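Slide 14.
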Amino acid sequence: MVIVDKDRTSKNGDIVIAEVDGAWTMKYLKQQRDSVALIPANPKYEPIKPKNELKIAGVVTAVVRKY
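Slide 15: predicted structure.
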């Protein structure tokens, strides 16, 4: 379970909840001059670069783990 701050402005390196081209994901935000990518925590997966639209819904501020 994650706690998300919908009012916080995202910055480079934040974990964000985002809608990318109509699909939802939770990834690290990587911003460069003219591009944005969403980077997975698992290196086996490829970064996501939006083709049409990127909406940041919020920034993850905490993780609650239950064992």
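Speaker note: DSSP finds no helices and five strands in the chain.
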